[in-house]
């Protein structure tokens, strides 16, 4: 078939004005070597069916003529079902195609979510899991599909807003929320906005959206609580939790995990005791997730007896988080023998397991064992060292005053392209200062883009101790300027 005829048929198909004309075009495709069985032409025909609102039997006939329809044909059929308000058929198609290994993409998921109605949140979670909003092209592709939907459901809007937040497009997410019809917004819409701002650490805006909501579900409360907790605002987390309880909103499992984790960060035994008492009063059913959170809280509050009791109760329900929390608890109180015993007997290890042991040895007067563990970690190949690993190893080198070993670790960081944050750079400064290489410490200090008071104090103390008074005075002046800058910023 010549290219001219192909182009001609394509143009006619896109311009067909009636169902009769569409039938005639399909007949011509059948005549020309059964082209109607090809995915490209089937997709074009189904798109015309959508535009002309052709009878369902005809659209199904076209779709069924392709033995192995590709994702484009499937997407065209999804759009047809959406246009015809045939939600059950769309979900049935999703189920059939998934079994065949043809999963929806960024073009078709909005249709599936819309068709799922109240169960759309399940498909929304699948969108996140599969990473369809992992690049800007996917978001824009979804936007094109959104623009084609004539009767938009709340779930359509929510998927788009979530996609924009996923890619960090705050302005687009906010604009979409602002133009969203008021009767289309629901708890999910507001919660997506709260979560989006919280991830950007803009808790003031997150709280504004939270306060504007007339009816808040427990999921919404959890989103705001999580925003505070994950950004280190323990007091605000607990205050909001108290408001939640006062208003009679019943916490769920997620709520309790968030609040327990917030208490863990405080490391306050009396606060932990009060929370456990409240949990008992509320008769909360403790599953393995809640027990693990409580174990971690007790361990961080140095109540190792309570932590171990929960650890023993969990039995076969223990997971990596449980083991790591218990190991960390023992290293925190300096019981490296029991920590090592657990480490050696745990069924599997990850980078957190190794990091707990390395940091534990480094901060409990056994830096040589910390380095031994670090080398063993590299040789085992079980887990790839990260920045936390390097902080522990550098700390151990500093305590050993071993500059040669420190340089080896620095080379390892560069060779394996491990990115360091301010905490990592501070560990480097500490190591060089302890090893007496003030020039290298100063060079590292100069590389830090966002310096804090600890960075200045570490270097100033080292310079002063080595009788470099002039340079330490210069850094002291710079530190005062930095403090004033931080005060103005706050």
Give a verbal description of the structure.
The protein is mainly α and 490 residues long. Among the domains are: 1-103; 110-185; 349-490, Tetratricopeptide repeat domain (Serine Threonine Protein Phosphatase 5, Tetratricopeptide repeat, Alpha Horseshoe), CATH 1.25.40.10. 74% of the residues lie in helices and 0% in strands. The protein contains 29 helices and no strands. The chain has helices at 3-15, 19-31, 39-52, 56-64, 71-83, 87-99, 109-116, 120-130, 136-148, 154-166, 170-179, 187-199, 203-212, 218-230, 234-246, 253-266, 269-281, 288-300, 304-314, 320-332, 336-345, 351-363, 367-380, 387-400, 403-415, 422-434, 438-447, 453-465, 469-489. It is elongated and about 90 Å long. Mean pLDDT is 80; it is low at 1-9, 118-122, 467-473 and 483-490.
Short account of what is shown:
The protein is mainly α. The chain has helices at 3-15, 19-31, 39-52, 56-64, 71-83, 87-99, 109-116, 120-130, 136-148, 154-166, 170-179, 187-199, 203-212, 218-230, 234-246, 253-266, 269-281, 288-300, 304-314, 320-332, 336-345, 351-363, 367-380, 387-400, 403-415, 422-434, 438-447, 453-465, 469-489.
């Amino acid at each position: 078939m010549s290219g001219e005829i192909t182009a001609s048929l394509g143009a006619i198909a896109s311009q067909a004005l009636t169902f009769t004309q569409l039938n005639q075009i399909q007949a011509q495709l059948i005549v020309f070597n059964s082209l109607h069985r090809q995915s490209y032409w089937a997709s074009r025909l189904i798109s015309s069916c959508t535009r002309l609102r052709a009878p369902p039997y005809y659209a199904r006939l076209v779709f069924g003529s392709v033995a192995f329809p590709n994702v484009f044909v499937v997407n065209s059929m999804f759009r047809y079902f959406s246009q015809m308000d045939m939600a059950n058929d769309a979900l049935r198609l999703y189920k059939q195609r998934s079994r065949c290994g043809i999963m929806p993409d960024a073009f078709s998921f909005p249709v599936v979510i819309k068709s799922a109605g109240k169960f759309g949140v399940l498909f929304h979670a699948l969108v996140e899991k599969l990473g369809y909003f992992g690049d800007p092209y996917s978001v824009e592709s979804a936007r094109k599909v959104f623009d084609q939907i004539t009767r938009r459901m709340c779930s359509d809007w929510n998927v788009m807003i979530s996609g924009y937040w996923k890619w960090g497009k705050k302005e687009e997410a906010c604009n979409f929320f602002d133009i969203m019809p008021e009767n289309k917004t629901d708890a999910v819409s507001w919660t997506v906005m709260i979560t989006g701002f919280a991830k950007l650490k803009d808790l003031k805006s997150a709280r504004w959206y939270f306060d504007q909501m007339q009816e808040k579900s427990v999921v919404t409360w959890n989103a705001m609580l999580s925003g505070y907790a994950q950004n280190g605002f323990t007091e605000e987390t607990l205050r909001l939790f108290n408001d939640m309880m006062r208003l009679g909103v019943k916490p769920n499992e997620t709520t309790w995990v968030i609040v327990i984790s917030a208490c863990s960060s405080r490391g306050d035994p009396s606060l932990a005791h009060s929370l456990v008492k409240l949990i008992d009063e509320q008769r909360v059913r403790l599953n393995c997730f809640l027990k693990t959170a409580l174990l971690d809280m007790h361990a961080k509050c140095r109540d190792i007896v309570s932590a171990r009791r929960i650890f023993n109760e969990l039995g076969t329900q223990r997971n990596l988080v449980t083991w790591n929390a218990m190991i960390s608890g023992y290293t925190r109180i300096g019981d490296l023998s029991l920590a090592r015993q657990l480490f050696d007997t745990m069924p599997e290890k990850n980078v957190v397991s190794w990091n707990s042991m390395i940091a534990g040895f480094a901060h409990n007067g056994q830096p040589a064992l910390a380095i031994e563990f670090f080398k063993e970690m590299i040789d085992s190949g079980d887990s790839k060292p990260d920045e936390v690993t390097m902080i522990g190893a550098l700390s151990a080198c500093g305590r050993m005053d071993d500059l040669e070993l420190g340089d080896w670790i620095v080379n390892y960081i560069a060779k394996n392209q491990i990115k360091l944050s301010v905490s990592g750079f501070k560990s480097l400064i500490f190591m060089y200062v302890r090893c007496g290489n003030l020039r290298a410490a100063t060079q590292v200090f100069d590389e830090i883009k966002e310096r804090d008071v600890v960075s200045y104090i570490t270097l100033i103390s080292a310079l002063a101790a080595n009788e470099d008074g002039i340079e330490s005075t210069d850094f002291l002046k710079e530190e005062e300027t930095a403090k004033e800058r931080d005060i103005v910023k706050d």
